[in-house]
Amino acid sequence: MKIVKILLFAVMALILFVTTAFVAAGLLVPESRSFANEIEINAPADVVWQVINDRGKYTEWQTNLTKVDIVDDKNWVEYPKDSPEPLKFSLAKDERPNGMEFDYTIGASFAGKWTGELTQTSWGSKLKTVDSYSAKGWVTKILIYAFFDMKVFSRDWNNKLKQRAESLNR
């Protein structure tokens, strides 16, 4: 009987600990985050924009995508390998040659914006990007914070864009 009481106490303590950790994470993890990156690309601006706008070829240089469905000129859907749901994108602003903005969502609880500003330089282009997102609900924001590093992802995306644009510029 003493062992049953000890086990019951241990289970209750574990439940209390997990509940407290979940509430603390829900209160402390920010709902919205934003990450800025800057990268120099040895290719002219028109080549960089060509790569960004050729969404049908994203799977050739974005290795984390299984496929991309083009809905129309302003909307497309990306299917990441490690995501339970696809990302739905829409073109929010097209101000080429200077910049573009995309909005994206995953389900009803995650929304984001990608902003790219491109400057032509004597050696190629300088791309400044800002990736921002907002996660609705404690579970979503905790899962995103714990399992998805947007800063690393956006830096990696820019590096792959650079490689692709420079390979087309040769």
Mean pLDDT: 90
Report the CATH topology name of the largest domain: Alpha-D-Glucose-1,6-Bisphosphate, Chain A, domain 4
> Beta-strand level of the residues, as a percent range?
35-45%
Tell me about the largest β-sheet. Answer: 7 strands, antiparallel
> From the 3D coordinates, which CATH architecture of the largest domain would you assign?
2-Layer Sandwich
Overall number of strands: 7
The helix-strand sequence is HEHHEEEEEEHH
Whole-number total of structural domains: 2
Question: Which sequence of strands runs across the widest sheet?
Answer: 1-7-6-5-4-3-2
CATH class descriptor of the largest domain: Alpha Beta
Total count of helical runs of at least 4 residues: 5
Q: What structural class is derived from the secondary structure elements? A: alpha+beta
